[in-house]
Amino acid sequence: YGAYMTDIIKNLTMKDSHEVKTYLKQNPNVIRENISTFREELSDIHASKPIILAFGVDTYNLLYDNLNVDDYSHLIRLIHYSHQIGKENYKRDVLSQIHVALNTKKPQ
User: Fold this and answer.
1) Is residue 39 helix, strand or coil?
2) For residue 108, pLDDT beyond 80
3) What's 63's DSSP letter?
């Protein structure tokens, strides 16, 4: 049906994830601005309660902490694509994570 891939934090040239986390902790306004931009992107593509696949723990935590549960139908944490486990193992693990997340009942 379609997919859209984007960075949650844009225009940040840092490559070291620890450096990025420190910067974001010291600059929470950057998170707020980027979450706002993300919501605008979802609106632009007419995504209503999308399934959001978050690549990596840090991205998942950032989204979980800053989005409302009404912003998505599922927020699924996936192993980051930079993991060195091989293409087939990565594919297997990601498909399994998605399957488990979509087939697990949410607490009411």
Assistant:
1) helix
2) no
3) H
Distance between CA atoms of residues 59 and 55, nearest Å: 6
Instruction: Name the 3-class secondary structure at 61.
Output: helix
| Residues 108, 95: Cα–Cα separation, whole Å | 25
Q: How far apart are CA 62 and CA 32, in angstroms?
A: 10
Tokens 């993991």: give the residue: 83
Q: Tokens standing for 81? A: 């694509």
- Segment 34-73, tens digit of pLDDT: 999 999 999 999 999 999 999 999 999 999 999 999 999 9
- Maximum Cα–Cα distance across the chain: 41
3-state secondary structure of 41: helix
* Helix (H) and strand (E) counts in the chain: 4, 2
Angle 50-8-93 (CA atoms, 0-180°, nearest 5)? 65
